[in-house]
């Protein structure tokens, strides 16, 4: 793990220091928010909730509407072309 095998590895063990520090460890409250497993479960829950809300929208029907509105100026004489107009209206919907 990055330590050269040619060098000696020494471990110092001081039981009194370990006993002193054990009270610090036992008095601390557990915080599950820092655990990787807890974060994974929270992420999976959030993804599942988002997936569910996305799929709820797929059960709604699709509705589309469109339309067109035009003036048609028609007359036999060129000087009276704009005297009368005919309205052309078109609207439709599909689902």
Write the layout of secondary structure elements.
Layout: H1 15-27, H2 36-56, E1 64-73, E2 85-94
Word description of this protein:
- With 95 residues, this protein is an alpha+beta fold.
- The protein folds into 2 domains: 14-60, no CATH class; 62-95, no CATH class.
- The protein has helices spanning 15-27, 36-56, and strands at residues 64-73, 85-94.
- The longest helix has 21 residues, at 36-56.
- It is rod-shaped.
Give the strand tally: 2
Backbone shape: rod-shaped
Major beta sheet, strand line-up? 1-2
Largest sheet: 2 strands, antiparallel
Structural class: alpha+beta
| Number of structural units classed as domains | 2
Helix and strand pattern? HHEE
Give the distance, in angstroms, between the N- and C-terminal Cα atoms.
65 Å
Radius of gyration (Å) = 39 Å
Number of helices: 2
- Average pLDDT, to the nearest integer? 81
- Share in helix: 25-40%
The poorly predicted ranges are: none
Query: Beta-sheet strand percentage?
Result: 15-25%
Give a brief outline of the structure.
With 95 residues, the protein is of the alpha+beta class.
Task: Provide key terms for this protein.
single chain, 95 residues, alpha+beta, 2 domains, two-stranded antiparallel ribbon, 2 strands, 21% strand, rod-shaped
């Amino acid at each position: 793990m990055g330590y050269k095998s040619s060098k000696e590895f020494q471990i110092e063990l001081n039981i009194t220091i370990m006993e002193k520090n054990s009270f610090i460890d036992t008095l601390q409250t557990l915080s599950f928010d820092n655990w990787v497993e807890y974060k994974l479960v929270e992420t999976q829950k959030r993804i599942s909730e988002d997936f569910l809300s996305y799929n709820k929208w797929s059960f709604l029907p699709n509705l589309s509407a469109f339309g067109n509105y035009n003036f048609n100026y028609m007359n036999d004489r060129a000087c009276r072309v704009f005297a009368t107009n005919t309205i052309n209206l078109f609207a439709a919907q599909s689902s």
